[in-house]
Amino acid sequence: MPVILALVPAFEQRIGQRVIEGNDTAGALEHGFVGGKRFDHAILPTGIVDALAAKG
């Protein structure tokens, strides 16, 4: 995560928008997706991605 956070200031300046970073367990992120929480970008373990894809 430190690498991503180091890139945030330059990315925000380039796109002109604020980045809101969040960090949680893979299970909590999966529940967020299933519950309808919206993400512009998420970094997830392969197992979670496969489980979400199987659910459709």
Structure description:
The protein has 56 residues and is an all-alpha fold. The protein has a domain at 22-56. It is built from 3 helices and no strands. The protein has helices at 2-15, 26-34, 46-55. The radius of gyration is 13 Å and the shape is elongated. The chain starts with a helix and ends with a helix. The mean pLDDT is 90.
Structural key phrases:
56 residues, mainly alpha, 59% helix, 0% strand
Secondary structure layout:
Blueprint: H1 2-15, H2 26-34, H3 46-55
Global morphology: elongated
Provide the β-strand percentage band.
Answer: under 5%
Based on helices, strands and strand pairing, what is the structural class? mainly alpha
Low-confidence stretches: none
| Helix and strand run | HHH
- Number of helical regions: 3
- The span between the termini is 28 Å
Q: Could you estimate the helical fraction of the residues in percent?
A: 55-70%
Overall radius of gyration: 13 Å
Largest sheet: none
Report the count of strand segments: 0
What is the typical, i.e. mean, pLDDT?
90
Q: What would a concise description of this structure say?
A:
By secondary structure, this protein is mainly α.
